[in-house]
Amino acid sequence: MRRIRLGETGISSSVLGFGCSALLGRSGQKQSLRALAAAWDAGITFFDTARSYGYGESETLLGEFLRGRRDRAVIATKFGILASPQPLWKRAAKPVLRALLAVAPQARSAVRRQAAGEFAANQFTVEVLERSLHESLRKLRTDYVDLLFMHSAPASVLAQPELLAALEKLVTSGKVRVAGISCEPDVAALALQQKPRPLRAVQFPCNVFDLSATGMADASGNCGWATIANHPFGGVMRVQQCRAMLGQIAASPATPAGLREKLGTVEDAVLADVVLNLIVQGTGIQVVVSAMMKTEHLRRNVEAMEGSRFSGDEIEWLRCALQRFVQ
Predict the structure, then answer these.
(1) Sequence-ordered strand ranges (E) for the chain
(2) Number of domains within the chain
(3) What is this structure's pTM?
């Protein structure tokens, strides 16, 4: 797996990151461990988690998996969203719910709405920061994290001097190597413009339905920030929408003949190639994070990042064409 330096942070990682949001959430322990092992074997070293993932248990599983590997891994975690402890009956019902979603993926939206009520967002206080990091370090079985992000943060956190000062103390102490903000693209652009200390990393959603971050991420090259994109496929329900748009482009006589041939019938490998390389090629975005719980998804994503079938000019042509679809 190709590696890259994250700005001027001193951290080097794989260009493809493993998203841990599904660990012990919509995926059980065995499947989660298999996915982590497959990612590691493929050369992925960037693991993106959060205090709230897996109802507070994703970090625990990741920490167990990384025993003996910690010095070769890059761990990014987050604070600011608190997960309510799950009663025993809800934990016992998880396998049944996972089986239901496997045969009825259309139920994901309803499940997601129900689960949203079990989290408290926008918890950006010094007390929550310190308590959350302490718990993250304990569950991850480590004495430091490589990146600590404010989770789904609003622009107002950029003007919280006490919170930023507390983050800086954690960086100085060595418990956090790099502090950052995980947010929507407009807030990310503001953070890159203001560059408040001690922030040196930004994470944001970026996919064919919103490529706005591909323009502003170039600014990070001037300030040495780490830039990480997430949600590259826009969610499970949008994969087919993306495939349909690419199918229309492939069938259009306005599309260059060579590009039409490469797109073909937009099989899964082609879809992964387009989606991931639209995000990282020529944009300044250094790492793209994807939840890859199935081996075939992981394999296709790794192949796409290791060697795209599309040239830089073709990727740029597709980027412009897709933006016209979603405007």
Answers:
(1) 3-5, 12-14, 16-19, 46-48, 74-79, 82-83, 119-120, 145-150, 176-182, 199-205, 226-230, 287-290
(2) 1
(3) 0.89
